[in-house]
Amino acid sequence: MSDERDTIDDLELTLGRLLGIGVTASSISLGAGLVAAVTLGTGAIATFLLSAGVLVLLATPITRVVVSSIGYARRRDWLFVVLTLVVLTELIASIAAAVRGH
Amino acid sequence: MPAVTYALALIIFGSGIAAGGVGALLGIGGGVFFVPLLHVALGFPLRTAAAISLTTVIATSSSVSAGRSGEQLINLRLGMVLEVATVAGSLLGGLTAHLFSETTLQRLFAIVTLLAAASVMGRVNRRNVLLHPAAHPGALGGRFHEAESGGVVTYQVKRLPLGLLTSFVAGNVSSLLGIGGGVIKVPALNAWCGIPMRAAAATSAFMIGVTATGGAIIYYGRGDLPALAAAPAVLGVQLGSWAGIRLAHRVPAKWLKILLVVVLLAVAALMFLRSA
Fold it and tell me: What is the pLDDT of residues B14-66, one digit of tens each?
């Protein structure tokens, strides 16, 4: 019996790439924000870059869950579509709690 | 909150390097050390320390998973199943905070890490590998090529309910303690669920980001996450995980387990001290 574990998993590569792009984009924005904070002071530019960096980082795992769900839907692996959607719902509930707490 | 000076930023950057390195080697985000460093040593309020720590965990998880993808070490299917439990635990985190005092929680956590250390120590020389590499790994098991033994390693998942329970507990204490919970997930996966050390570490590294996200978002919403203090940690993580991934291949599984035991004992001691 053969399945995706016998070959390099496309989904693993896609998710890896996605996480890499997310954390790199976040780091670039945070790094630029630090440079701006040091050179220009903690004004609007530094605040924007730093906030954008944090938001991109927080969005990265959530995007990963969304893309996992799409990946499993393409494979018609419905059990895993349901599991990833449950995780997504739980994360959205955290966002809702955060918005209420604001 | 202390002002973010150059010295403070450097300390946070250095801790980020360590967190990224340990994350790549052991699948642990390092939050369990980050919080006392930021709170006790550097004087950040506990909520801020937890928020920065959770952000660091997300960075470590993303960075390590990106670097390790394509090695078949991350068990995606197992990870997705356990994530349901870990995120549910994180959502219900307030419940635990309500039931136990922080001191009790720290003592319980210390006891759990001591048990985990003993379990891993007892298995230092044993391997979670099926005799026949061509055997079917079952619904959630996996297979990967391992440089250390030069062959294909196949494993099956045992005691899934215990893995689910550990993931739930890890998520449950995540926002309160500022951790991704890798420190209990890795020993549980390795000692109880039959996952080889490298796969346990990679799968835990993959999951801790999602575990930490719920708590991090809530802290961010409450204004407890100072981006200026979190930034050096995230940058440090990038460097540390880059180095850790390159080192991980050369470290035998046995030494990874011994390192894990040392980390677990340090965590237990730290938690007992903080609860005293």
Answer: 999 999 999 899 999 888 888 889 988 898 998 899 999 999 999 999 999 99
The rounded distance, in Å, linking the Cα atoms of A46 and A31 is: 10
Chain B residue with Cα closest to A94: B214
Helix, coil or strand: residue B130: coil
Q: Which residue has the tokens 């995780």?
A: A87
The token pair that represents B59 in the structure block? 């960075």
Residues of B in contact with A16 (CB under 8 A): 65-70
Task: Tell me how far apart the alpha carbons of residues B61 and B66 are, in angstroms, rounded to a whole number.
Answer: 8
pLDDT tens, residue by residue, B176-232: 888 888 999 999 999 999 999 999 999 999 999 999 998 899 899 889 999 999 999
| Contact across the interface for B70 and A57, Cβ inside 8 Å | no
Q: Which domain holds residue B170?
A: 6-71+83-128+159-275
> φ and ψ at B18, to 5 degrees?
-60, -45
Reduce the DSSP state of residue B180 to 3 states and report it: coil
Count: domains in chain B: 1
Assigned domain for B140 exists: no
